[in-house]
Amino acid sequence: MNCAEFQKVLPYIIESGGNAEEEAHLRECDVCSDLVQDLRYIAEQAKLLLPMHDPSPKVWDGIQENLQREGLAKPARARGRLLGFPSLPSLSIFLLLFAAAAVGFGLLK
Ligand SMILES: [Zn+2]
User: Fold this and answer.
1) Model confidence over 32-75: pLDDT tens digits?
2) How far is the CA of 75 from the centre of ligand 1 (A)?
3) How far is the CA of 107 from the centre of ligand 1 (A)?
4) Contact call for residues 102 and 11 (beta carbons, < 8 A)
5) Whole-model pTM above 0.85?
6) What sections of the chain are H helices per DSSP?
7) What is the DSSP string of 49-73?
8) Distance, CA 16 to ligand 1 centroid (Å)?
9) Do 55 and 64 touch, CB atoms closer than 8 A?
């Protein structure tokens, strides 16, 4: 079993644990065991967030507008460029989407 095969069945492994072959790969492979650990952590955090209700987007828009009017914040894009780092590394975005999909899958079951 290689990493690609392992990661294809990763959502099931996170849900219910893997079979012997998958467990063996997990023990031998730092990349995949790190990934599983990260995803479990993100999934746990995401579950904690679920009961919270996000304020309406208008609230955030209002805060952003107020900050901009008072000169405390520049539009997000300009600020990211100014400080010289992107808002989020693409790997993190991938992991978050993946975790969201895994959590969503778990909820649908
Ligand atoms: Zn691997």
Assistant:
1) 999 998 888 888 888 777 666 667 788 888 888 888 888 877 66
2) 40
3) 26
4) yes
5) no
6) 3-8, 10-16, 20-28, 30-49, 57-69, 76-83, 90-108
7) HTTSPPPPHHHHHHHHHHHHHTTS-
8) 18
9) no
For ligand 1, a single-atom ion, the residues with CB < 5 A are 3, 29, 31-32
Give the position of tokens 């072959």.
21
Give the span between the Cα atoms of 38 and 27, in whole angstroms.
15
- What is the identity of the amino acid at 45? Q
Q: Which domain holds residue 51?
A: 3-108
Q: How much is the pLDDT for 109?
A: 54
Q: Report CA(89)–ligand 1 centroid distance (Å).
A: 21
Distance 74 CA to ligand 1 centre (A): 42
Q: Is the predicted pLDDT of residue 5 greater than 90, yes or no? A: yes
